[in-house]
Amino acid sequence: MAQETTDEQSTAQHAASSLTQEERERIASMSYEQARDQLIQAVQALEAGGLDLDQSMRQWELGEALAKRAQSLLDQVRAKLDAAQAQQAQTAQTAGTQSNLE
């Protein structure tokens, strides 16, 4: 049931979003640096003012999608680092032991 609620929320968010499927796909394929740089541009556009309500909402939605992409990439890197550190710790524990020589 919790999964249905999450799926419904995701569907509702996409329906309410002004981002097109193509824009969402483009964001999903961005590198961290690309997402970060475009997020900075979106924030600057909002901070500069002069946008009407629809333009402001679009920039906000774009910023949210870009921030989510950047965070996802950071989370992936963190997971890789954690795995590498765990592997190093395991190797250090077995260094010079018979189990390491097999």
TrEMBL record:
Domain of life: Bacteria
Principal location class: cytoplasm
Reactions catalysed: Exonucleolytic cleavage in either 5'- to 3'- or 3'- to 5'-direction to yield nucleoside 5'-phosphates
One term of GO molecular function: exodeoxyribonuclease VII activity
Pfam families reported in the protein's UniProt record: Exonuc_VII_S (PF02609)
Keyword Acyltransferase carried by entry: no
InterPro entries according to UniProt: Exonuc_VII_S, Exonuc_VII_ssu_sf
GO biological process, one term: DNA catabolic process
Subunit and partners: Heterooligomer composed of large and small subunits.
Family: Belongs to the XseB family.
Protein name: Exodeoxyribonuclease 7 small subunit
Lineage: Bacteria, Bacillati, Actinomycetota, Actinomycetes, Bifidobacteriales
